[in-house]
């Protein structure tokens, strides 16, 4: 079945550092890809998405590019802030199985 | 924010008792999902619904049942709660199976089975 693999962390960075969180997937068909963010005590919020190969999703300084050849959707941000501290989930939307499949999540801590 | 309300937000129950969690949406979305979140596992799908009275099992459905008698409500029932069902439960909704459609999540219900 479909699956998503991502680095589990935790990842600890200093403010203004560069962030990369790796995500790779296995899927049949042509899934959409998503990054969700979860702040403490809250539900998941959509951060960005990409729906086809070579699409780049971006939001709040975060970016990720849908790479079909490497089945990857790595999340990047050029300069992180303390307020970016959260758990980040990579996910795919499987319209064959009518389901969303999530990675295990990566906890990011940004220190001032 | 999508109109999704989960109730209760927190619950402590004893082993062997039945528990029902409720998800209510005001978006009129067709698809509704129940996930559980556990450390190291991310979110795992329990059950989902693709319309009124239309439901199907997910990855971790054993010990859970669901019902959807109205578009806006999706109930998750633990028939006889066990300690392994201690978790955070999230409801999600999506408008369609269109490839471009994302899922929107509720705030979660923290369930502790003692």
Strand content of chain B: over 45%
Overall strand count of chain A: 12
> How many DSSP H or I helices of chain A?
0
Structural class determined from secondary elements of chain A: mainly beta
Q: Rg of chain A from C-alpha positions?
A: 13 Å
Question: What is the N-to-C succession of helices and strands of chain A?
Answer: EEEEEEEEEEEE
As residue ranges, the low-confidence spans of chain B are none
Q: Describe the global form of chain B.
A: globular
Distance between the termini of chain B: 34 Å
Question: Care to count the β-strands of chain B?
Answer: 11
Silhouette of chain A: globular
Helical amount among residues of chain A, as a percent range? under 10%
Distance from N terminus to C terminus of chain A (CA atoms, Å) equals 41 Å
What class would the helix/strand composition of chain B place it in?
A: mainly beta
Largest sheet of chain B: 7 strands, mixed
Pair with the biggest interface = A-B, 26 and 29 residues
Mean pLDDT of chain A, to the nearest integer, reads 92
Helices and strands of chain B, in N-to-C order? Answer: EEEEEEEEEEE
pLDDT under 50 segments of chain A (min length 5)? none
User: What's the average pLDDT of chain B?
Assistant: 92
From the structure above, extract its key features.
heterodimer; A: six-stranded mixed β-sheet; four-stranded antiparallel β-sheet; 12 strands; B: 114 residues; mainly beta; seven-stranded mixed β-sheet; globular
Any overview of this molecule?
The complex is a heterodimer of chains A (about 110) and B (about 110). Chain A is about 0% helix and about 55% strand. Chain A is mainly β and about 110 residues long. In chain A, strands 2, 5, 6, 10, 11 and 12 form a six-stranded mixed β-sheet that branches. In chain A, strands 3-9-8-7 form a four-stranded antiparallel β-sheet, with no helix packed on it. Chain A has a two-stranded antiparallel sheet with strand order 1-4. In chain A, strand 10 (about 85-95) and strand 11 (about 100) form a beta hairpin. The model of chain B has no long low-confidence stretch (mean pLDDT about 90). Chain B has about 110 residues and is mostly beta strands. Chain B has strands at about 5, 10-15, 20-25, 30-40, 40-50, 55, 65-70, 75-80, 85-95, 105, 110-114. The termini of chain B are far apart. The interface of A and B includes residues 43 and 51 of A.
């Amino acid at each position: 079945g479909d699956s998503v693999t991502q680095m589990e962390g935790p990842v600890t960075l200093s403010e203004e550092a560069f962030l990369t969180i790796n995500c790779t997937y296995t899927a049949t068909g042509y899934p959409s890809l998503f990054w969700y963010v979860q702040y403490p005590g809250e539900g998941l919020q959509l951060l960005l998405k990409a729906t086809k190969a070579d699409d780049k999703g971006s939001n709040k300084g975060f970016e990720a590019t849908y790479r079909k050849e490497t089945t990857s959707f790595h999340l990047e941000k050029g300069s992180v802030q303390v307020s970016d501290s959260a758990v980040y989930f990579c996910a795919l939307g499987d319209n064959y199985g009518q389901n969303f499949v999530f990675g295990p999540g990566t906890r990011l801590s940004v220190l001032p | 924010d999508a109109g999704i309300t989960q109730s209760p937000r927190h619950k402590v129950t004893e082993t062997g008792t039945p528990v029902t969690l409720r998800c209510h949406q005001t978006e009129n979305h067709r698809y509704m999902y129940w996930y559980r979140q556990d450390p190291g596992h991310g979110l795992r799908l329990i059950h989902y619904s693709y319309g009124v009275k239309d439901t199907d099992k997910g990855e971790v459905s054993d010990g859970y049942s669901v019902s959807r008698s109205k578009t806006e409500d999706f109930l998750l029932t633990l028939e006889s709660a066990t300690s392994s069902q201690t978790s955070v439960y999230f409801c999600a909704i999506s408008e369609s199976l269109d490839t471009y459609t994302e899922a929107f999540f509720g705030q979660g219900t923290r369930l502790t089975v003692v």
